[in-house]
Design goal:
Elements lengths: L1 H18 L15 E7 L7 E6 L7 E6 L5 E8 L3 E6 L3 E3 L4 E3 L6 E2 L2 E4 L7 H8 L5 E6 L2 E9 L2 H10 L5 E3 L6 E5 L5 E6 L6 E5 L9 E3 L2 E3 L2 E5 L7 E7 H12 L6 H17 L28 H8 L6 E3 L2 E2 L4 E2 L29 H4 L6 E6 L1 H10 L7 E9 L5 E8 L4 E5 L1 H8 L6 E3 L18 E2 L5 E2 L7 E3 L5 E3 L7 E3 L5 E3 L14 E2 L9 E2 L2 E7 L7 E2 H11 L3 H8 L4 E2 L1
Parallel strand pairs: 10-14, 22-37
Antiparallel strand pairs: 1-19, 2-5, 2-16, 3-4, 3-15, 5-13, 6-7, 6-8, 9-11, 9-12, 10-11, 13-14, 15-18, 16-17, 18-19, 20-21, 20-38, 23-36, 24-25, 24-34, 25-26, 27-36, 28-29, 30-31, 32-33, 35-36
The chain binds zinc ion (ZN).
Length: 583
């Protein structure tokens, strides 16, 4: 019985696997939430008012409500057909031509004093019906109930005068520090007001028109999803875009890569972006959202730069995540690794099993196209001394500098400086080395010191190429030509076909993984520092390749794998993230 069940289960699993898209692996990951909260304006950039405009053909009007704990929009029945609306602080505000700012002068002024009726309504519809009977009346949502308010006045006494003149009941209100007012942009016509203290914030969701998913303009960018407006500290408005994770991904990949890049590279980026965001929920919880729109988290600017290729990259990886033993991965990526990525604990502090260093042969064949792939930084002894002192080191004049420990991947792990008092000062691990030296990556050497692995350049993928005049060439061979045995001149082949002989007669494949017999455990001691170490013609000279933190995926490596090697996004992901599952 059991055997039969097992066999059936297996054949069922086989059938499911056969039907599934080829790149998807078993056991799809279920994200804890469907949407992410992206902070557009917050903290010192919070706004006195924020305009919204339906993108033509992508929505018409808005529903009002709030977002619940699960990031779902909860409509409260309130809506408008207006296409251009502004959400502002409930203060005396004037329209300055583009938005509302505090003030009472000008042609368009929205006063914050209103006549509020005593009657409490259970539904928006009932309140709206009553409001529609009077000119300049609108509905206010106050802590779960609806009220009818009339007029907008600059002072309480002006509002009271109007109340008496119109024979209205009720009382004069000017809202609290948490009240937000919604008006038709450019007018003093109030559409709606919302105040639930700090318990709920106004949520605005564009209404769909036709069959297209709504998109909404806000400050020059076109967004999917809805918006939340929070006067968190009773002041200006924190604007948050609450958006489906896949639609968020659409707004990241053309900004973190180029929308002209190969599809498979963009798909790899889509998986990294989606997974990274989901693994970093609540990064900005102090401001009430998950992620910001800058490189601090991931660059996100809505749909502006999306095109058919970036949309396909998201659609073809819809709902897929990168996991390790069922947990979301921290899918770091950077521009280029210079030849090898690094074990994360050799750069930052925590060790993660899937962030292992890998030798990267793929960047080499596009490196010649990148103007800053190989870089040199130089300092006079005075400059580097000042730099170290600015970092809080009470050092004497620096007289020597060396990479004293390299990792097994051949990246710098520890840089030691010697001062004229004989004391040593260390920069340890990636971020410290990069910021301390002003280096673009940790794939570097200092002075004339050879990289680890001896003169064949074992630690530096691709080695160092020298032309007939002894000039060092960039690691890419693409722009160079060779004459074959048959006399034919050809462009230098890509890695895998070219061999070179070192001075000691050892033959090695160009661009192949470094030959290193360093112990696999702790980074190997590479050199000692002495007076004069690191100096070339009187300058401390740091040479390196690549740009970024050397953790996870190289974007240029992914580009090369997709463009030049016909590799698919799952191959790219599995290359840069050790032992992960895609699903
Ligand atoms: Zn951030």
């Amino acid at each position: 019985m059991k055997k039969w069940l097992k066999a059936t289960a297996l054949s069922l699993a086989a059938a499911v696997l056969a039907a599934a898209p080829p790149a998807t692996e078993a056991g799809a990951f279920e994200p804890p939430v469907a949407a992410v909260k992206i902070g557009l304006y917050y903290g010192s950039s919070a706004l006195p008012s924020a305009n919204l405009q339906n993108a033509t053909g992508y929505g018409s009007g808005y529903d009002f409500g709030y977002f619940d704990e699960s990031r779902n929009f909860v409509p409260i029945g309130a809506y408008t057909d207006a296409v251009k609306i502004s959400v502002m602080r409930d203060r005396n505000m004037r329209f300055d031509g583009s938005g509302y700012v505090e003030g009472t002068s000008g042609d368009v002024v929205v006063g914050c004093f209103h006549i509020q009726g005593d009657r409490q309504y259970d539904t928006y519809g009932a309140a709206r019906e009553a409001a529609d009977r009077t000119n300049s009346s609108f509905v206010k949502y106050l802590s779960g109930s609806f009220y009818v308010c009339t007029g907008n006045y600059l002072t309480a006494s002006a509002a009271e005068e109007a109340r008496v003149a119109q024979g209205l009941g009720g009382s004069i209100t000017s809202g609290t520090v948490y009240t937000v007012t919604v008006a038709e942009t450019g007018t003093n016509r109030i559409i709606f007001e919302f105040d639930c203290g700090t318990g709920r914030w106004l949520g605005v969701m564009p209404r769909q028109s036709g069959g297209t998913k709504p998109q909404t303009w806000f400050r020059g960018y076109r967004y999917h999803g809805g918006f939340q407006y929070a006067r968190r500290d009773g002041g200006d408005i924190t604007v948050v875009n609450i958006v489906d994770i896949d639609d968020y991904t659409r707004g990241v990949i053309p900004n973190e890569m180029s929308n002209a890049w190969p599809l498979e590279a963009l798909k790899a980026q889509a998986l990294c972006a989606r997974t990274y965001a989901m693994s970093k929920l609540g990064t900005h919880s102090a401001h009430g959202f998950d992620l910001c729109t800058t490189e601090h988290c991931q660059v996100y600017h809505g749909q502006n730069s999306a095109n058919e290729i970036t949309e396909a990259a998201v659609d073809q990886t819809l709902g897929q995540y990168i996991t390790y033993e069922g947990e979301l991965c921290e899918t770091y990526f950077s521009s280029s690794d210079g030849g090898a990525t690094e074990d994360v604990e050799n750069v930052w502090n925590s060790k993660l099993p899937y962030l292992r260093g890998v030798t990267d042969p793929y960047e080499a064949d596009i490196a010649g196209r990148l103007s800053n792939y190989s870089w040199t930084v130089t300092y006079t002894p005075e400059q580097i001394t000042q730099r170290m002192r600015n970092r809080g080191n009470n050092c004497g004049q620096i007289v020597g500098m060396a990479v004293t420990r390299y990792t097994d991947m051949g990246n710098a792990y520890e840089v030691t400086m010697l001062d004229d008092g004989g004391r040593t000062w260390k920069l340890t691990k990636g971020d410290s080395i990069r910021s301390g030296l002003g280096a673009k990556s940790i794939r570097l050497t200092i002075g004339d010191a050879a990289p680890p692995g001896g003169p064949s350049g074992g630690g530096q993928s691709g080695g160092v190429y020298v032309d007939g005049s002894g000039q060092t060439l960039d690691s890419a061979m693409a722009p160079y030509y060779a004459i074959g045995g048959d006399g034919q001149v050809d462009a230098m082949p890509e890695e895998g076909a070219l061999y070179a002989m070192t001075g000691d007669g050892e033959v090695a494949q160009v661009g192949a993984a470094p030959q290193t017999d360093a112990a696999p455990a702790a980074p190997a001691v590479s050199a000692n520092v002495a007076r004069g170490s690191g100096l070339v013609n009187g300058y401390f000279t740091i040479r390196g390749t690549g740009t970024g933190h050397n953790i996870g995926m190289s974007q240029w490596g992914a580009y090369s794998m997709a463009k030049n090697h016909n590799m698919t996004y799952d191959q790219i992901i599995h290359f840069y993230f050790t032992g992960v599952t895609i699903g």
